[in-house]
């Protein structure tokens, strides 16, 4: 007979691939109305804005902070490295907790930590305090992105997730270009401390809004939204929202959430996902894109000051259309492979080629991003008109964001029961690669010039092309093997 430990291990493996009970005709996937879903998605995107914002808003203040605290710029730059290290670790803990105890409690905890850390940063007067509080700030903000992917998995069917991810990534993707502008203006007009007071105010508004108006969406706690939340999972708005929800659709999902509450959050769950073959390729491609884009964005301040004599930021980008295109691909491929589109919209069906639906168009995005990145480096090195590298930056921003939508949506699809945990796994890989890439950026530029430096990054982008083809071909086999263990 199987031991209790073997049974527990088998249950954990099944939970990885098995979503909460699928809705029947009388029980929709989610009882949240479209306006409610849009509101929830807005709050998730709003919260996810703070992790990259807190990183990029810091850059214009490096020199005045170093001067005021009496330390070198190199030491202040260390606060950037430690920020990125923490942002790669903490989401693994928060993501697992959110999949077990719900989204709301983890959001409240994370943003409360972030709020207190910013107050400390605004009032501290020593370098050790700066270093420690920057890590605490990162701990509070970095988990919000993985929490957002968890919410998307809770409320969006597979056919909707492309659009939802496309909207959601507006938050983390607009922060890098906006952060330096906001930080520069505040540092110049009010002083660097007001950068952190700005984050206190802005983060406090987000925390208060979530406390008052973000309903619990975790299917572990509320099923498809029809099971009333209690305690910290309950919000004041739930009293009003419950009046508009449909009754009688909790029978299919009522027992499972209660049974799963007993399990304790496992911070190592995100690291275990790194060992899954079908996920590792996705996480690696997503990390490569994130790291290379971070290097392109980081190069702005140094290269544009050196080459053109001033700093510009890439134009605002549009992220939503590619998400809509992913939804169209999902339905089209369902028809092409003999699946009922209406049934396929509700759930990820056995044998459905989800890798093809999500990644086929991403292959062309990879090629375009690789070419644009290489062109960006040589445009700067040859000192062409400033409009050209800025236009190329806009292209890179759009294509890379499209790739993030595709990768993020598929990672969520493959982990319906642990979407926040899976997003945290993605964060581990991308934060590690980004830290290494940004550390190597300036030495490479100094050694071979901007042209060859970004040719190297373009080649790194291009390696994702064969990996995507490999994932499309082999991914279904790996997924089936993982589900049969």
Task: Sum up the structure in keywords.
485 residues; mainly alpha; globular; disordered N terminus
Break the fold down into its secondary structure elements and pairings.
Layout (H helix, E strand, L loop, with lengths): L3 H14 L16 H15 L1 H7 L5 H8 L3 H29 L1 H21 L3 H15 L2 H12 L5 H8 L1 H20 L3 H21 L5 H4 L13 H6 L13 H6 L8 H5 L3 H31 L12 H17 L4 H6 L7 H28 L5 H28 L4 H44 L1 H21 L1
Low-confidence stretches: 1-19, 246-262, 310-323
Q: What pattern of helices and strands is seen along the backbone?
A: HHHHHHHHHHHHHHHHHHHHHH
> How many H/I helical runs?
22
Our estimate of the beta-strand percent is under 5%
CATH class: Mainly Alpha
Overall number of domains = 1
User: What oligomeric state do the depicted chains represent?
Assistant: single chain
Biggest beta sheet attributes: none
Determine the mean pLDDT.
Answer: 77
Query: Mind telling me which CATH architecture this is?
Result: Up-down Bundle
CATH superfamily annotation? MFS general substrate transporter like domains
Shape: globular
Q: Terminal Cα separation, in Å?
A: 17 Å
Helix proportion range: over 70%
Question: How many strands in all?
Answer: 0
Helical/strand content category: mainly alpha
Report the radius of gyration as a whole number of Å: 22 Å
Could you name the CATH topology?
Answer: Growth Hormone, Chain: A
């Amino acid at each position: 007979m199987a031991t209790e430990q073997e049974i527990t291990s088998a249950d954990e493996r099944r939970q990885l691939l098995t979503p909460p009970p699928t809705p029947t005709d009388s029980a929709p996937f989610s009882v949240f109305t479209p306006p409610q879903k849009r509101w929830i998605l807005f709050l998730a995107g709003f919260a996810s804005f703070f992790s990259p914002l807190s990183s990029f808003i810091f850059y214009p203040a490096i020199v005045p902070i170093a001067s005021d605290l009496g330390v070198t710029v190199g030491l202040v730059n260390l606060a950037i490295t430690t920020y990125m290290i923490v942002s790669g670790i903490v989401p693994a803990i928060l993501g697992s907790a959110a999949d077990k105890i719900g989204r709301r409690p983890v959001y409240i905890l994370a943003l409360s930590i972030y709020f207190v850390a910013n107050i400390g940063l605004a009032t501290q007067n020593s370098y050790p305090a700066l270093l420690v509080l920057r890590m605490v700030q990162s701990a509070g903000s970095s988990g919000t992105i993985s929490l957002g992917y968890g919410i998307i998995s809770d409320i969006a069917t597979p056919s909707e997730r492309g659009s939802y991810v496309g909207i959601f990534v507006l938050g983390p993707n607009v922060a890098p270009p906006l952060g330096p502008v906001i930080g520069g203006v505040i540092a110049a007009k009010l002083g660097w401390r007001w950068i952190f007071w700005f984050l206190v105010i802005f983060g406090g508004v987000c925390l208060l809004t979530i406390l008052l108006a973000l309903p619990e969406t975790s299917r572990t706690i509320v099923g498809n939204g029809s099971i009333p939340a209690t305690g910290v999972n309950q919000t004041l708005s739930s009293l009003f929202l419950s009046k508009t929800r449909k009754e009688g659709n909790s029978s299919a999902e009522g027992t499972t959430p209660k049974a799963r509450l007993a399990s304790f959050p496992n911070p190592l769950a995100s690291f275990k996902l790194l060992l899954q073959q079908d996920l590792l390729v996705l996480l690696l491609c997503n990390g490569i894109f994130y790291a290379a884009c971070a290097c392109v964005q980081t190069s702005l301040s140094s290269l544009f000051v050196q080459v053109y004599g001033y700093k510009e930021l890439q134009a605002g980008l549009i992220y939503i259309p590619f998400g809509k295109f992913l939804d169209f691909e999902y339905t089209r491929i369902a028809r092409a492979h003999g699946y009922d589109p209406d049934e396929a919209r509700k759930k990820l069906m056995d044998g459905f080629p989800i890798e093809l639906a999500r990644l086929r168009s991403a292959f062309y995005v990879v090629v375009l991003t690789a070419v644009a990145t290489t062109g960006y480096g040589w445009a700067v090195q040859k000192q062409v008109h400033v409009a050209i590298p800025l236009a190329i930056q806009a292209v890179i921003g759009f294509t890379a964001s499209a790739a993030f939508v595709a990768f993020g949506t598929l990672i969520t699809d493959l982990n319906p029961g642990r979407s926040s945990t899976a997003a945290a796994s993605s964060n581990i890989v991308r934060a590690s690669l980004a830290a290494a890439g940004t550390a190597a950026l300036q030495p490479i530029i100094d050694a071979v010039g901007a042209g060859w430096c970004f040719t190297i990054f373009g080649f790194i982008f291009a390696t994702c092309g064969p990996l995507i083809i490999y994932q499309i071909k082999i991914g279904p086999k790996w997924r089936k093997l993982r589900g049969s263990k």
